[in-house]
UniProtKB/TrEMBL annotation:
Short name of one Pfam family: YjdM
Top-level taxon: Bacteria
InterPro entries, A to Z: YjdM (IPR004624), YjdM_C (IPR013988), YjdM_N (IPR013987)
Protein YjdM C-terminal domain sequence ranges: 45-112
Family: Belongs to the YjdM family.
Protein name: Alkylphosphonate utilization protein
Length: 114
């Protein structure tokens, strides 16, 4: 039987395999065999065309988006500068011109070539 490494989060020796993943039953941490922790912690967020987004990028809205709780609409072609990537369903935090601070889904924007 192969020797499994201890959990990188809590150092528990009770790690088990589930397919490609290693799982710690004590802290519920999951990681891949041979994959660095930095690579697992860094989630890649992509736009509608598959381009990787980073903090500070400029994006363009590709679809009219209704603003929840308001009669406002973010129109197609609206350019949003200096985005910030966050965890969650709406993975882009930004300030939309004419609307204000809001969260956008990355599937409704495309990266502007700089």
């Amino acid at each position: 039987m192969s020797e499994l490494p201890p959990c990188p989060k809590c150092q528990s020796p009770y790690v088990y395999e589930d397919g490609e993943l290693l799982i710690c039953p004590e802290c519920a941490h999951e990681w891949g065999r041979g994959v660095s922790e930095e690579a697992l912690d860094h989630k890649i967020i992509r736009d509608a065309n598959g381009a990787e987004l980073k903090d500070g990028d400029t994006v363009t809205v590709i679809k009219d988006l209704k603003v929840k709780g308001s009669s406002s609409v973010v129109k197609v072609g609206t350019k949003v500068k200096n985005i910030r990537l966050v965890d969650g369903d709406h993975d882009i935090d930004c300030k939309v011109p004419g609307i204000g601070q809001m969260g956008l889904k990355s599937e409704f924007v495309k990266k502007v070539a700089e």
